[in-house]
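ok trying this again, last paste got cut off
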Amino acid sequence: MAQLLFLPPLAAAVAALLARSPWQAALGTAAGAALLLAGAVLQASSLPAEAWGDLLRLDELGMYFLFIVAGVHLACSVYSYGYFRREMEAGRIGAAKVRKYHIWINLFVLSMVVVVSSHHLALQWVAVEATTLFSAPLIYLHGDRKGMEAAWKYLLICSVGIAFAFLGIIFLSRAAGDIPLTYTAVPLAAGHLDPRFLRLAFLFFLVGYGTKMGLAPMHTWLPDAHSQAPAPASAMLSGVLLNCAFLSILRVAPAIPGTYASPLMILFGIVSIAVPAFLVAVQRDIKRLLAFSSIENMGIVSLGIGFGGAARPAALLHVLNHSVAKVLLFLVAGDLILRFGTQRIRKIRGVLRQAPLSGFLLFGGILAIAGSPPFGPFWSEFGILAGGVAGGHLAVALFYLVLLAVLFGSFLAHGSNMAFGEGERNTATPAEWWCLVPACALLFASLWMGLHVPAGLYKALEDLSSMVSFS
């Protein structure tokens, strides 16, 4: 039953609340993450799974996003044990705040499980708003002025965005009349919906959930929030939260005419790639650099959905490839920040000489997120490009290619300077295997996805793409 998937993160949050030490809380989080992933595997054989009337219905598309949530959560829960132990040893954080981290991160995961399982658009809206409320304390976890500013900026901008999405629900309700606002009923009745209110609804959904997704120009909360949150929380924000907002847009796509929706998706997609292309080269903070990369990659998936055709399954594949590569980079960034005592890119130098494994993971992750072969993002980005050309969007596809080339050069320059550049030798405690093993697994996964995209996975994504096609 779909509602049983709520139990692991909920139980882990309660365990963290009752734990006497941060390490007991960390053990509960890791156990909850493992149980969530195991529950998703068991549930995958009996889809769709319905519960509580029209409120919950976990289908194949929701399961795909749930697997990403569960996998990323498991990797980050293992990493967080070693990460926070090093932070406590360095005096950067206290035991009480580590326990609070585990409480909030599990509630955050619980809200995302509700997002991917929601069948009613109103419940999905509530769940997306809950992700904001549960993740804001993670941004302010260290309790400093910058964290406070970033958390309030996150709450304010995302709350305005979610208000726009609520207006989208109101317009969709007006267009649907007596039709239930479920993601199965609305597309079936698309031909009977008032087109004026339907178009307004999609525009407000795209702007509202696009704010939470990090699409430009509504992206301004994202660099600050990602730079202030602890590394495992930043990885969760970038690796899965943005995906959940994207899923919320996809749920209404089948009811919207493609002639109206596709140009909007293409416009927001290309703007979201162009903005980082101009800003990545001048970034001075490693986590802000990765945050702008998240904006770019959300633009890429939006562009793929807008192109349609063969670009659509490639866009869904890129959701997975981006999550794997970006989580890897945030985990490595957390290690480097503790090792060098700074987030300033110009002060992180010679990583390959001082910490060969961390340097290898860093440079491999930079190559992956920049779309270099033989890593997974190369194929999904290439699939979107090929789909755009085949779909007749030649000019946009060429502009997309130019922007990718600019971004590749900027990321390669930053990565080369950090990995190979000359710098002072540091004496910080080396990373623990708790931190290195999840990062190694993610780099291997990205490499494997680049060398051999499983035929079964791509066939499944082609089937899923039919569920997000515009009418």
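PB: full thing came through this time. The chain has 19 helices and two strands.
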